[in-house]
Amino acid sequence: MYIGRFAPSPTGPMHFGSLITAVASYLDAKHQHGIWKVRIEDLDQPRTVKGSDKTILDALHQHGFHWDDEVIYQSHRLDIYQSFLSKLNEKKITYYCECSRKEIADSAITGIDGMIYPGTCRNKILDSNHHALRVKVEDLFIEFEDKIQGGIKQNILKEFGDFILKRSDGIYAYQLAVVIDDALQNINTIIRGSDLIDSSSRQIYLQKILSLPKVAYGHVPVATLNQKKLSKENQSMPINISNVKDNLIACLKFLGQDYEVVRKENTLTNFWATAIQLWDISLVPKIKTIEI
Ligand SMILES: [Zn+2]
Fold first, then answer.
1. N or C, where is the chain less crowded by C-beta within 10 Å?
2. What is the pLDDT at residue 157?
3. Ligand 1 centroid to 122 CA: how many Å?
């Protein structure tokens, strides 16, 4: 059975960009009679805005989403992340890194997603105090077929380098937590924004070294305004809860769907029933960003 999810970070009110991802992941799951779960990704406590988890869940509820199972919070799962991290420590494929941002910037070249860590601390013996923990990656290609964007092939070592699993401030890295949660929640299909497409190969790599099941990925275009991603941080377009139907129609339009038929529905229940029936992932534009 299809098990999908939506995993917002509670860093502010729901905005148009995250509503698009919620709609796409929900429709893709429900079109295939699947399950759809919600997970709050609140590991980065300094960025978390108190109460915005509730605001986001309320917004989902008012837009007529129904999620399966209880909502889980990453901040309640630190012991779980540590137990998986310990498995990698035992395999001796992790190491502490004492490099400052500046030191890395001075010696590294820029890759697809920030600096490529040159492996400076690979052979140092450091204790854990206040150091970031990295995983020693192999020189290999990760290949996958994205349900929307097509074939992706990346060399983990050459394009990202040894990446961080736990930050120097003690916060578990997004890549690690996501992979563990998706596996433990039995998620098998992930539909999310294309700003995360370059995280996928690192996540597939972690699945491999942690012996966790593979997942299918589909990355929808990200909405941009003046070439910048809409985000809670830049206060872009928080959604207006009084225009639920207009918000959803705008999402369907953005996702290349046939929204004219759906628009005629009078109730939210009928709206969703029709949208679920008509959902066609092959109509989603195969591009990474769309300027709105
Ligand atoms: Zn280092």
1. N
2. 94
3. 7
108 Cα–ligand 1 center, Å: 11
Show the tokens assigned to 216: 């299918």
Cα-to-centroid distance, 96 and ligand 1 (Å): 7
Q: Domains in the chain: how many in total?
A: 2
- Measured in Å, residue 93 CA sits from the centre of ligand 1 at 15
pLDDT reported for residue 239 = 86
CA of 128 to the centre of ligand 1 (A): 13
- Give me the CATH number covering residue 60: 3.40.50.620
Q: What is the DSSP string of 227-258?
A: TEE--TTTT--B--GGGHHHHHHHHHHHTT--
3-state percent breakdown (helix, strand, coil) of the chain, nearest 5: 40, 20, 40
Question: Does one domain contain both 111 and 244?
Answer: no
> Cα of 176 to ligand 1 centre, how many Å?
19
The alpha carbon of 132 and the centre of ligand 1 are apart by a number of angstroms equal to 8
CA of 1 to the centre of ligand 1 (A): 43
Note the pLDDT of residue 155: 95
Q: Provide the residue range defining the domain that includes 159.
A: 79-174
Return the ∠ at Cα 82 (arms to 80 and 172), rounded to 5°: 100
Q: If you measure from the C-alpha of residue 159 to the centroid of ligand 1, how many angstroms do you get, rounded to a whole number?
A: 17
Whether 181 is in a domain gets the answer: no
The per-residue pLDDT for 242 is 85
Query: Measured over all CA atoms, what is the biggest interatomic distance in the chain, rounded to whole angstroms?
Result: 65
* Same-domain status, 63 and 192: yes
Cα of 95 vs centre of ligand 1, distance in Å, is 9
